[in-house]
Specification:
By secondary structure, this protein is α/β, with parallel strands linked by helices. Helix content is 37%, strand content 20%. The longest helix has 22 residues.
């Protein structure tokens, strides 16, 4: 331990301690401000619910890179014709904004573009509704039916898939004020990847991750191969696999004044996972064109 401390002392001998400390103080104040805003009380439930969504949205806006945009109250759609339940907040790659299907105030975002699907709740949470919501996100599938010019040829992902990314999925995030959120995750391991709880009276956020994923490689496979590695013909031996297996999200913890600086820690953790996805899948124009052509032609929806 002493040897490590000596190594760090040497490594950061010229670090600007005052500026770094000021940045950490600012993150601490920001986190406190978010919690205070979330617990602000007004008599109209609908109004405060919308207000809290905007607070959560602003928090994410200050964390994710500018290539992402955040939309409130959207639906996610796939090229098989499935549509999710309403998503309170969606974080998606701005590269895909031309492919948002708008109908008046309704917004439908293709699953290929979505990096995070976020459900915002207050202190009351209905377990069945949460499970229904997550199931509606999990049922969506990306399509490999894309065509793109590359150096030397025109690539068809359906025939020659990108081996490092065969089927992406969004991170499922629950933002709430409820102390029972952790129990809900344990009861269903596939429910949410991340739960963020504001803790009244503590001025802190409590952020919990799916502990089934032990390292960055687990997250990589979950987010880039939603259908499983065995289904995509990709064998073990991916370049860099062994190195990323050595790193877990605990390696991104930042401490300040003898406690975890939650918001800054989350900044590094979330952006690391977004970087593992890196760019979204190539957009399957043909798949969506076929889906719209073959459906919605005056026939009643089959709910059977």
């Amino acid at each position: 331990m002493k040897q490590k401390e000596a190594e760090y002392a040497d490594k950061y001998a010229n670090a600007d301690q005052q500026t770094i400390g000021n940045i950490k103080d600012n993150y601490e104040r920001t986190e406190k401000g978010i919690v205070n805003e979330l617990f602000f009380q007004v008599p109209h439930g609908g109004t405060i619910g919308n207000h809290r969504e905007k607070i959560w949205g602003k928090m994410f806006e200050n964390i994710v890179p500018r290539k992402f945009v955040i939309e409130q109250s959207v639906f996610i759609i796939d090229s098989y014709g499935k549509v999710s339940n309403e998503v309170d907040l969606a974080i998606f790659d701005e590269t895909y904004t031309p492919y948002i299907f708008r109908y008046a105030q309704l917004k439908f975002i293709p699953i290929e573009a979505v990096a995070c699907a976020i459900e915002c709740k207050s202190t009351s949470m209905n377990k069945e509704k949460l499970m229904t919501w997550t199931s509606s996100i999990q049922s969506l599938k990306t399509s490999p039916k894309s065509f793109v010019r590359t150096i030397g040829n025109i690539a068809c992902a359906e025939i020659n898939p990108v081996k490092t990314q065969t089927a992406t999925r969004p991170l499922r995030i629950l933002c709430c004020l409820n102390e029972e959120a952790k129990m809900l995750i344990k009861e269903n391991e596939r429910c949410f990847d991340i739960t963020i709880r504001a803790r009244d009276g503590e001025d802190k956020l409590k952020i919990e991750w799916d502990d089934k994923k032990k390292n960055l490689f687990d997250w990589y496979t979950s987010l880039n191969h939603a259908g499983g590695l065995s289904n995509c013909g990709e064998n073990s031996g991916i370049k860099g696999e062994e190195e990323v297996k050595k790193y877990g999200l605990d390696n991104y913890l930042v401490h300040h004044k003898n406690s975890e600086l939650t918001l800054l820690t989350f900044n590094f953790q979330l952006n690391q996972l977004l970087m593992l996805i890196n760019n979204p899948m190539l957009f399957p124009h043909a798949a969506y064109a076929e889906m719209f052509d073959k459906n919605g032609n005056g026939k009643e929806r089959d709910n059977g």
